[in-house]
Amino acid sequence: MMKMAFFDIDGTLINAQNGMMEPDKETKKVLKQFQQQGNKIIIASARGVIPDGLKDIHFDGYIFSDGHYIVYDDQVLIDDMMTLSEIQKQMEVYQKYHGRAMFYGRHQEWCSCIEDELVKKHRIMFQGTDQKPDGVIEQFQPQDIQSISCCVLFETVDQLWNAYHELENDMTMVAYDQGLIRMDVYHKGYKKGTACQYLYQKLGVSQDNTYAFGDGINDIEMFELVGHGIAMGNAVNPLKKVAEYVTDDVEHQGIVQAFQKYFGIKEE
Q: What is the pTM of this model?
């Protein structure tokens, strides 16, 4: 029976803030072997695009933006854009609570505070550098934005939760109130876990033949909705508590170790 494995990106396949911008060659080998056995590998991430360090791996599908942009076998299945009224309301709330908003489309970013210190910290966390990216639109009106997601940064936890509660009836959100205080915001709909469930059910794969690898808070639902949740050794404790298995960390071939345990696949 075909198996399907879902992979978070940051802290699972790469670790940009520690300079690990791509998986090691052993991890790439076991992923390829898994596919050669007739199985599928799927990205499941809050990111909106695949980072450069993963572009040489041919994933069978991509769940981006925590389930609001889904591609399988080069076909777009879900493309869940925000409406103008949703964007307008968000901008009002973020201004009220001093949020630093980064709106993301398929191939474009809108951010009026690109050199803000919190935004720089976000770049270091996910890009491995605080260098200003090219092509960001810094001056815009709400009607200019064609966004599928927004990441908004706050100085305090109170600001985060106040903004969250003003938007919770209208938007789907994932809040992070530890470390870099932020939330990812989407049109009302899927989260990462329900998106994984949508895809494996659509393809007729049984839940018991589905596996998920992750490290963060937004991976908890994904672990609950697949057959087998495998937490990286560097995962947050709440995720480890719901995991079926905790492997080694991302920088010590945690995926290779788990593939040996679950699928009998060893590095060559």
A: 0.89
